[in-house]
Amino acid sequence: MDHFLYRDGALYAEDVAVADIAAEVGTPFYVYSTATLLRHFHLFDEALEGMDHLVCYAMKANSNQAVLRTLAQAGAGMDVVSGGEYRRARAAGVPGDRIVFSGVGKTEEEIRTALQGGIRQFNVESEPELAVLNASARALGVTAPITIRVNPDVDAKTHAKIATGKSENKFGIPIARAREVYRMAADMPGLEIVGIDVHIGSQLTDLAPFEAAYRKVAELTETLRADGHDIRRLDLGGGLGIPYERTNADPPLPSDYGALIKRTLGHLGCEIEIEPGRLIAGNAGLMVSAVIYVKSGEGRDFLILDGAMNDLIRPAMYDAYHDIVPVTEPAAGIDRAPIDIVGPVCESGDTFAKQRMMPPLAAGDLVAFRSAGAYGAVMSSEYNSRPLIPEILVKGDQFAVIRRRPTFDELINRDTIPEWL
Ligand code: LLP
């Protein structure tokens, strides 16, 4: 459920008409709903009630400072994957002891930044990383809390580009080698083992792969405890999917996911961390764009928008489906016709939807891409010298620009021309 509904024939973001935002900031833009962000965070928080837990929002999904502050004030921790994300989380007011650091390629500098600034734990993904972390911690005279990310060799049954839990993926250490690697870690005086980490993929619409992975983690917990390790925390990653298409086959709810966690891992008495990104931010955002032209082609028509693949890359990159709805509600029973919805970028991949059934639209009309709050703005680029589009946050009847549109001068002046030219 989200807070983007039609009211008197116009699409609203909470109590703000989307068209009013467009009139003020121009198109395209992203708009996020505070109530939806908070609703989704609380669904997870409540799903784990009764267990000692922390919901660490995977901020790669949407790392705008205002989004982070909104969630941090509600009690969220953060999952970060770079020095930049660590700094963003801290700048938004997240204390170090609520930040977990994931990622296969943490550099020595990033590790030092987190060790000095304060960190809840590093989720270590390889033996060389263990060695670098140990050396960095010892050089700073501190101990680094760690989990080791295990790769459970489970098929997440999602798009290949976002599946991470199979043995051929670059993530984690093979679960079969876990005992050996934990023994190595225990011998490193700069490290303190606190638990186990696992993350098998993103946009999972079935709980079975989670169940398979978590059962393996439960078994490993007992084995490692028997080996003498103090396994007191389990980081279960993110990955719960969202309904991009309104169909009958809706993905499982956070409450179902929470029940699964309790069922598979509850008996171990561990503190639970989860790292949801998409389910918190995805349906909390729209990308709003205007029609530039309606063009008739050979046997098909094109709706050419002012938003493009550089602003929302998911359709081009993952063949992802996003609902695209007119900002002015179409009259009931109006005829719809198939049309290709495209952006102005000079490649055919700049296609948002093919032969989508749409009501008649004309130049200047506004459309909204639903479920664009996660992996939207954060994955955008300035390809074709198109400035990054603004982000807007709505709360009740107020809205604020939380990242403004850069000027063309700003875009051009980031380049420097060497003296010799
Ligand atoms: N934890 C780790 C270690 C991750 O790698 C990820 C996502 C998450 C948590 C959050 O997963 P979520 O709850 O959002 O599914 N750009 C792609 C998604 C990439 C996900 C990468 N890792 C997309 O637009 O679909």
Automatic annotation (TrEMBL):
PTM sites of type N6-(pyridoxal phosphate)lysine: K60
Sites where the protein binds substrate: R278, R314, Y318, E347, Y375
Single GO term (MF): pyridoxal phosphate binding
Cofactor: pyridoxal 5'-phosphate
Alphabetized NCBIfam families for the sequence: lysA
Record's subunit section: Homodimer.
Name assigned to this protein: Diaminopimelate decarboxylase
Native species: Sulfitobacter alexandrii
